[in-house]
Amino acid sequence: MEQEVKKSKGKPILIAMLAALVIMGGIGYYVFFQMPSKTEAVAEPSAEELDKVTVETEEITTNLADQSFIKIKFRIQADNEDAKAELEKRLFQVNNIIIYELSGMKAVDLQGQKGINHLEGILKGKVSKLMQEGKIKRVYTIEKIIQ
């Protein structure tokens, strides 16, 4: 009789363990195969779509903190057409931010991809703070010469 009691206690535990494995397998399958991957690229906007939401700055020539000179130009992407219109009206403020940020940098700070990415990130954040009709999605450096 003791063996029957032991067997009857083991069956519910075995069934619970199998159920837990099936549930964990289902969750694993969903996570691995069904959830969108972070590595999947977000579709880039078309050239026409970009043209509707980007503004090009004038070419800016200014001195850097180490007495070097820089000639630089940007194309700034807003998140919608209303934001683009606002950005066009605020270009003088954008140019001021660019000159202000560059005046505190040295030529070495702007070298390579890391230097450009850093500057673009700073400008994106500062210009976005100005905006009331939207935000800045991206800043593109389209010309850069340091002497």
UniProtKB/TrEMBL annotation:
It is found in: Cell membrane. Keywords: Cell membrane, Cell projection, Chemotaxis, Cilium, Flagellar rotation, Flagellum, Membrane, Transmembrane, Transmembrane helix. One of its GO terms (cellular component) is bacterial-type flagellum basal body. The chain crosses the membrane at residues 12-32. The keyword Acetylation does not apply. InterPro entries: FliL. Signal peptide: none annotated. One of its GO terms (biological process) is bacterial-type flagellum-dependent swarming motility. It is a single-pass membrane protein. It comes from the Bacteria. Coiled coil: none annotated. The keyword Cell membrane applies. Belongs to the FliL family. Controls the rotational direction of flagella during chemotaxis. This is Flagellar protein FliL. It comes from Fictibacillus marinisediminis. The gene is fliL.
